[in-house]
From TrEMBL:
It comes from Qipengyuania gelatinilytica. This is ZIP Zinc transporter. The chain crosses the membrane at residues 6-24, 36-56, 76-95, 115-134, 146-163, 175-192, 198-216, 228-249. Keywords: Membrane, Transmembrane, Transmembrane helix. It comes from the Bacteria.
Length: 250
């Protein structure tokens, strides 16, 4: 099967998560679903075993492309990751503040519409970049693609579930369609446009920072009532798969 068709099917699978996460009723429970904690563990495993090592690899690309010394090039890569983390942290804080203010003034546990749409827009940008990287990853092997796909699928489950819980009415009516369109747009952009390696490194660093924040936001707060052992199982399982794939490739 052509690789382009495989990545297209993966993009459609991402779209299915965006469109139908609200139908996964077994996730909507208190305390938090163990499946969400498991997915969060896989995403954390992806951060430490893929994103952080690839950020280090992209620093060498920065060094060659810019002529900076190795230390400065590495710091620039991690600064981009920090920018992604800071952006999404700011958006999450804006959502929380907006919800508190609306609850105090209107008695509604929902953020204001403009703030929620700002969050959807930033999420769409992140989704677009993730879909673009389906066709432009540091690890081009089939196993690397499969691990990337699995980690991003589970990340989308937790991230979309969290986004939908902020304002399910807007998410179900229009927000999910925006995310699905961004996914297909990112995949198509990856087919039609091959960006320079330096730009891909910048995108990957930014995406990495955003994913780190979103994973920690979903799993760490006390009010999430997360489960440690499913989280640990997800992280260990993903780590075993990555290390096994690396060992077999050597």
């Amino acid at each position: 099967m052509p690789m382009t068709l495989i990545t297209l099917l993966m993009a459609f699978a991402f779209c299915a998560v965006h469109l139908f996460v609200g139908q996964l009723r077994f996730l909507d429970r208190n305390p938090r679903s163990r499946w969400l904690s498991f997915a969060g563990g896989v995403a954390v495993g992806y951060v430490f075993l893929h994103i952080l090592p690839e950020l280090a690899a992209h620093s060498k690309t920065f060094e060659k492309a810019t002529g900076f010394d190795a230390t400065l090039a590495e710091e620039l890569v991690y600064a981009l990751a920090l920018a992604g983390l800071a952006l999404f942290y700011g958006l999450e804080r804006s959502l929380a503040i907006s919800r508190d203010r609306r609850m105090a003034t209107e008695g509604r546990d929902r953020p204001h519409h403009p703030v929620f749409w700002l969050h959807i827009g930033a999420s769409a940008l992140l989704v677009l970049l993730i879909a673009y990287l389906l066709n432009h990853r540091e690890d081009p092997t089939p196993a690397g693609l499969a691990l990337y796909f699995a980690a991003m699928m589970l990340h989308f489950v937790t991230a979309d579930f969290g986004t939908r819980s902020d304002h399910p009415e807007i998410y179900d009516a229009r927000g999910r369609w925006v995310l699905a369109a961004a996914t297909l747009g990112g995949w198509l952009l990856g087919i039609l446009v091959e960006l320079p390696e330096l730009v891909i490194g910048c995108l990957f660093a930014f995406v990495g920072g955003g994913i780190v924040l979103l994973v920690l936001k979903e799993e760490l707060p006390e009010d999430r009532k997360s489960f440690f052992f499913p989280f640990l199982a997800g992280a260990l399982l993903y780590a075993a798969l990555v290390l096994g794939e690396t060992y077999l490739a050597v």
